[in-house]
Amino acid sequence: MLTDFFLYIAQGTAVTIGVTLVALPFGLAVGLLLALLYNYGGRWVSRAAGLYSLLMRGVPPVVLLFILYFILSGRLINLSPFWAGSLSLGLVSSAYQMEILRGALAAVGAGQMTAARAIGLTRLQAIRFVILPQAIRLAIPPWSNEASIVLKDSSLVYALGVPEILRRAQQLSATTGQPFLAFGAAALIYFALVFLTNRALDSLAERTKLPTQPV
Amino acid sequence: MKRFWLWLSLVLVVSLLLTACGGAGGSRLDAIKKAGVIKVGTSADYPPFEFVDASGNTTGFDVELMNEIGKRLGVKVEWVDMPFDSLIAGVQEGKIDAAIAAFNYSEDRDKVVDFSEVYYTSEDAFTVVESSSLAINDPASDILNLKIGVQTGTTQDDWLTALVDEGKLPAGNLSRYDRVDQIALDLKNGRIEVMMSDAVPAEALARQLGGLKVIYKGVLSSGPMNIVLPEGDAELAKAINEVLAQLKAEGFIDRLAVKYFAE
Description:
Structural class of chain A: mainly alpha
Radius of gyration of chain A: 20 Å
CATH topology of the domain at 15-163 in chain A: MetI-like fold
Low-confidence stretches of chain B: 19-24
Largest sheet of chain A: none
Oligomer: heterodimer
Largest sheet of chain B: 5 strands, mixed
Mean pLDDT of chain B: 89
Number of strands of chain B: 12
Number of domains of chain B: 2
Number of helices of chain B: 11
CATH architecture of the largest domain in chain B: 3-Layer(aba) Sandwich
Distance between the termini of chain B: 70 Å
Order of helices and strands of chain A: HHHHHHHHH
Largest interface: A-B, 30 and 33 residues
Mean pLDDT of chain A: 92
CATH topology of the largest domain in chain B: D-Maltodextrin-Binding Protein, domain 2
Shape of chain A: flat
């Protein structure tokens, strides 16, 4: 009984991981681009990036999910519930990741850009070879926070009918009348996933640390 | 900055237009027959109408009925499990071809979707904890001072909300929940005094969780149950209604009711 419970809920893990693996990298790509535009893009571009972040962080993820799936998908592009859900979460996450990365970019001293230009690097080269490698290292700890948030928010895709961990727990709770066991199993799986993610990112931060980096 | 606002308003206008002209024309029946698959939405957390069994399959009264309808139409039923709240939007936006989840007809729902013929008639029930001495004879007046729980988006929700709107039931007395099992748990925890729901799942919950009893059964908000179909698709509705009529005549639905609802 107990193992059946656990196995049924654990099948949702693949969906949870899948959604996270789409949303996080997508959010990182968009977020990084926007952070660079925000910091180095000039006045108007910077403002547009700021507005994007304001909008995306101001709208509840589930509202964006509904807009993308029920309103836009099927008219502009045809997205399956999985992709509509994952991409919406990715869009929301991109705004948060942008904020993390632009903070990290700003934390690399302005003198570094001046010095890099003085030894003959172009602006782009200075960003690529001097600023970004340091900024990304600084961004790992706050980014690991964002990673665990996206992992847990992935349960929102159930609103579109994608059965992940939490939904399977709800079904079992309804069928068996044992909510404690069902949600306990779900909590355990989420905890294990978040724990592993955070440990992996901690070790990445440790291994890539620069000698000059403050502890 | 002016340019920017111009673009922004353009984007907004275009998206509004896209929203306005949505919805596919023609019958879905051809597409369903061609694909050999009908996509049916349900919310598999409402035993015995729809739930997940021990081996992880979606089953229940509604599910078995719809599978038989699919078989007789010569197509396979692909089940899509959604929150109850999302089902009407799913049919409306063409994400699913139909929805079956113990839906009752209501005028508000009829504005955006269509309904099949009646396949079963359900009753409302009020459920309390076993130790309670509450009695309900005339619900419309007897429940007005009670803390009551109901599932969001159900006909029971409409019925209670109307009482709130008329100023009879204080809004603070009404709690809305996503799922019916959550109401039963809050009832047991003493946060609410009475649960209003369909009678069949209320009796199933009372059996399963224990410590609860149904103190009133009768038709207030619910009644005839129908399959939810896309708005204005007469061909699909006709095909499904024909099969429903066959199944009723053969006694198939009565046998299902005995299988799932009998004690």
